[in-house]
Write a structure and sequence with these properties.
oxidoreductase, 6-stranded parallel sheet, 455 residues, UDP-Glc/GDP-Man_DH_N, UDP_ManNAc/GlcNAc_DH, alpha/beta, NAD, 18 helices
Length: 455
Amino acid sequence: MALPITQNVGGAMGNPHYDVGILGLGYVGLTLATVLAETGKRVIGVERRPEVVEATNSGRPHFSEVGLEEVLTRVTQSGQLTATSKFDPETWCDTYIITVGTPLSSEGTARIDMIEAATREVAANMRDGALVILRSTVKVGITREVVTPILQESGKRFDIAMCPERTLEGNALQELRELPQIVGADTQEVADRAAAVFRHLTNSVVQVSSPETAEILKLVDNTYRDVQFAFANEVARVCDAFGVRAHEVISSGKLGYKRTDVPLPGLVGGPCLGKDPHILMQSASGKGIVLEMAAAGRLINERQPVETAEFIAAEIARRELPSPLEIRILGMAFKGIPATDDLRGSMSLQVLAAIKKQCPDASIGLFDPVITPEVLRASFPEERVFSRIGDAISGASVVVIANNHPALGRISPRTLREFVSPNGFVFDFWNHFSHLPISELGDSYFGVGNAGVAT
């Protein structure tokens, strides 16, 4: 059970004043709160989930992030960081940072209900002169059109800035200290004030001319990456059609030729790339603009699980693999480099759904190098869960490698062939082995952009 706020602040001699209050202790909020506290700031984090409050105050992160537990333990034990489920009326902060989530609704639009709720909490708690920073990823205009009016209703004076989060999961603590921090505000005075908060983390601060500029900047960054990966997946489709290897085409094309830097193909998702292009498109549609390239990128990346599941089903039929089919999916987190246990927006979930639709009678088993078996069982109660990769692949009809964690690329195709059932095969979304010659891959290994090459 969460400790009451009076007990939380008792370790800091009952002082109700904090330098920074952070609304939302998800991935963005907890990492930021921890690093700010490490710089000497007194930080209070507000989080509605009682289990997260309790874990935070015990120094235990509720997600996997390199180095976080060590620092979190240190700053909570020292009293620099405190978590609570709501502000005490006597508590107040110089700066409030809103980091709550903005997931897509069932209609595909970015939700703002959590932004509104967090802003009301700030409005009720802040004193005259507070600085409010919005860090959540939002549709363009939310800072000015949603957050500001709610704060104004309080009748209190405040400054507001938009400073988007841009850290890479698995490398967040380092990037918070190194990445340029974007600051968008209407006046230089407010921009300088917000910049001063982040200069406790890094000297690299980029000031832009308005909150809208900062909002768009974040969306453009991730949409650009999404479109890049979509083009790589288009290259893979062409290579499959002509029976050549996408890995060879892309890797060879880069050698000594700086004008081309096509990424390798693979699954594209996660809490940012799967969402932010949609938010940018929604923002543009409000001005009567259709972002055709962004839309095409999302179409390509979102249909990939279905296309590859169709290939897998066709290959099962071609090989006449006997029932009951034993299909294994390795890597359920949305990525493996840097490693994470985050399932939000993971395309592995779409791969699982597509395979179940194509092969409804198959027995499907799951393994992830980072996510614990307990979490996998709770998240996927209908599937069999494995705690060791060897057990997962042993006797499998089909092995699907669905993220790029290095552990999934340590068993060579030759060894994999020895583990899987006779005439079974491997489909690798991340081309862990496509750099090897075809003679090493044999006829039991396929990858994105390598599906028409096996001999």
